[in-house]
Amino acid sequence: MKNIDVSIIMGSDSDLSIMQDAAKFLDTVGISYEMKILSVHRTPEKAMEYAKELNENGVKVIIAGAGGAAHLPGVFAAMVPTVPVIGIPIHTKTLSGVDSLYSIVQMPSRNSSCNCCN
Questions:
Q1: Domain 6-105 sits in CATH 3.40.50.1970
Q2: Which residue has the higher pLDDT, 78 or 63?
């Protein structure tokens, strides 16, 4: 894996049209990135391997699309704990992406004193 500043990840190629806007912005400002389609529930091993690479290669930010299941930002926040994760809610047919937004804003902070994680 090459040294990149930002990792843009999404759960499926149906999210690509939304996530490409992040890539276009990063191109405009000259920030290095790569885009990956990773499903943490269909291919968890690949996602864990990629998270390990991000930890080892000094990525500075993860931009993660949150679609129907909306778990990708939270899972990567847990697997790459030293890197900020920006969750992007993706429009869904059932709730228009509001469910994804709620999942993102309700993620506990890394400094949380949650009893379930300690």
A1: yes
A2: 63
